[in-house]
Specification:
Layout (H helix, E strand, L loop, with lengths): L2 H9 L12 H6 L10 E5 L6 H7 L3 E6 L2 H10 L5 E4 L8 E4 L3 E5 L13 E6 L8 H14 L5 E8 L14 H8 L3 E10 L5 H5 L6 E9 L2
Parallel strand pairs: 1-2, 1-6, 2-5, 6-7
Antiparallel strand pairs: 3-4, 4-5, 7-9, 8-9
Length: 223
């Protein structure tokens, strides 16, 4: 999706993808990664998710990336977190860095991030990033993730799958077959859960989508 698409969504407050609570799947499955409390966690396309606060409360240092500045500013304001904004780095001045005590957010294009900005990161959490990309752009995102994450990084990935022809994304349908075909060479993958969640998503019901599956994977970056 082009940046203007997401900027227009935030400007119009059309942010149905934002959850007003911590994702229950994160609470349920994050312990399976068995991470040390002081692990550093990367959250791509993080929006103003409360999941960032939850991860920080577990003792993690959280590093997120979000395209839209309004989303970043709202995150800090709504959670009463004082922050400092500085350019992330002269060589990538299109990024701004927002620092709070245990949370750092990079505002700008994910593809402008480099491994240097994520030095120290050893885990990641993707609830809304992979499914935000149409299939034509999805592999480029995976390749960027591979570039940014060091070997043996642990991660939690949440996907949605449904008949793509039934509804125009985002979120886009990502099948288990796609995940295995395009990510298994770079990550050890374990499917933790796969559940029918159609009745919990009125938008999909109203559009007469026949089925909707939400899956949770544990990933480990291969060395």
């Amino acid at each position: 999706m082009e940046p203007n698409f997401w900027h227009s969504k935030w400007n119009a407050e059309q942010i149905g993808f934002h959850l007003s609570e911590v994702n229950p799947l994160l609470i349920k499955y994050w312990p399976a990664l068995d991470l040390a409390p002081n692990s550093q966690v990367f959250v791509p396309l993080c929006g103003k998710s409360l999941d960032l606060c939850y991860l920080a409360e577990l003792g993690h240092k959280v590093v997120g990336c979000e395209l839209n500045q309004t989303a970043v500013e709202q995150f800090f304001a709504e959670n009463s977190l004082p922050h400092l904004m500085t350019p992330a780095k002269e060589s990538i001045s299109e990024l701004n860095r927002f620092d709070a005590s245990d949370i750092t957010l990079y505002q700008g294009d994910l593809f402008s991030l480099t491994p240097e900005e994520l030095s120290g990161v050893d885990a990641f959490y993707d609830r809304a990033a992979l499914i935000a990309w149409p299939e034509s752009m999805r592999l480029a995102y995976v390749e960027k993730l591979i570039e940014l994450l060091p070997p043996k990084s642990m991660g939690l990935l949440v996907t949605l799958d449904y008949p793509q022809e039934a509804l125009k994304g985002p979120p886009f349908a990502v099948s288990n077959d796609w995940v295995m075909a395009n990510m298994a060479d770079y990550f050890e993958l374990e499917l933790l859960s796969s559940e029918d969640v159609l009745n919990e998503n009125p938008r999909f019901v109203n559009k007469q989508v026949p089925w909707l599956t939400e899956s949770v994977y544990q990933l480990k970056r291969r060395g």
